[in-house]
Design goal:
By secondary structure, the protein is of the alpha/beta class. It has a single domain (6-121, 182-252), classed as 3-Layer(aba) Sandwich (Rossmann fold), CATH 3.40.50. The chain contains nine helices and eight strands. Strands 1-2-4-3-5-6-7-8 form an eight-stranded mixed β-sheet, sandwiched between helices. Strand 1 and strand 2 (11-16) form a beta hairpin. Helix 1 (36-42) packs across helix 9 (238-252), helix 2 (66-80) packs across helix 3 and helix 4 packs across helix 5 (153-163). The longest helix has 16 residues, at 166-181. The radius of gyration is 17 Å and the shape is globular. It starts with 5 loop residues before the first strand and ends with a helix.
Length: 254
């Protein structure tokens, strides 16, 4: 399902539904379309789902980091005049939501982390994707998923284009280094907010022990596993992901 991308000032975003606000944050290699299942489900269940496009390739290189992406999300929240927010973050998106929570905990009703960075991630394997090697890019894209068929040709083409764009590559590397610098291990024990952790058992980017560490360090968290699933559970198993999250919302009265 496709949704209308709103363009207002410096913000590009999807907005669907009415009610309790959910802000969904995509990953470094992710796209707004990764969350079609979440948008379709929760926008019909009394939630307003907002998915802002993060300025990963438009900020000055020196400002392309977790701190400034979080600042951008703060500006988006102020622009939309919303509060008491549920964050759903995948990969880098989870990291940004954690960094935001560190500085704005009172604004957050709940956190949902899936394949989140912030403690550790194996970004695209042991090295940055080789420029010009399409088969290598295809294999690295497929490695994100348990079901390799999720890695469509369009997805591989988009990543291939990215790694052959010098400006985007530099910003991607800057963002990845920032994620390493902004390790949240010492911060998250102070984040006493309901947190739902949904993780793929076969995640090779942020392996299962990362989910265990998040669960151990976050003072009010629940951990759920999805089998035969890699780094993006909301894409590989959208129905199971939504069922887990819906039940958690009901149990926690969120």
């Amino acid at each position: 399902m496709s949704y209308t991308l709103k363009k207002e000032g410096k913000f590009n975003y999807i907005e669907e539904g009415e009610g309790q606000p959910i802000i969904v944050l995509h990953g470094l290699m992710g796209a707004l379309s990764n969350f079609d299942g979440i948008t379709s489900h929760f926008s019909k269940k009394g939630y307003k789902v907002l998915i802002p496009e993060m300025p990963l390739y438009t900020l000055p290189i020196i400002k392309t980091n977790v701190k400034n992406i979080s600042k951008f999300i703060q500006e988006f929240i102020n622009y939309k005049e919303i509060d008491n927010i549920i964050f759903i973050g995948n990969s880098l998106g989870g990291h940004v939501s954690l960094y935001f929570a560190k500085h704005n905990l009172k604004k957050i009703k709940a956190l949902v982390l899936t394949g989140s960075s912030g403690l550790y991630e194996k970004s695209m394997g042991d090295s940055y994707p080789k420029r010009g090697d399409y088969q290598y890019i295809k294999e690295k894209t497929e490695a994100v998923f348990y079901n390799k068929n999720i890695a469509t040709k369009e997805m591989v083409d988009d990543l291939f284009e990215l790694v052959n764009d010098r400006s985007k590559v530099i910003r991607t590397l800057s963002m990845a280094r920032s994620a390493i610098r902004h390790n949240m291990a010492e911060d998250i024990p102070n984040m006493d907010v309901p947190t739902c952790i949904i993780w793929g058992k076969q995640d090779e980017v942020t392996p299962p022990e990362v989910a265990d560490d998040f669960h151990r360090l976050l003072p009010d968290s629940d951990l759920f596993w999805i089998d035969k699933c890699g780094h993006a559970p909301m894409m590989e198993h959208p129905d199971e992901f939504n069922a887990i999250l819906s039940n958690w919302f009901d149990k926690r009265k969120i």
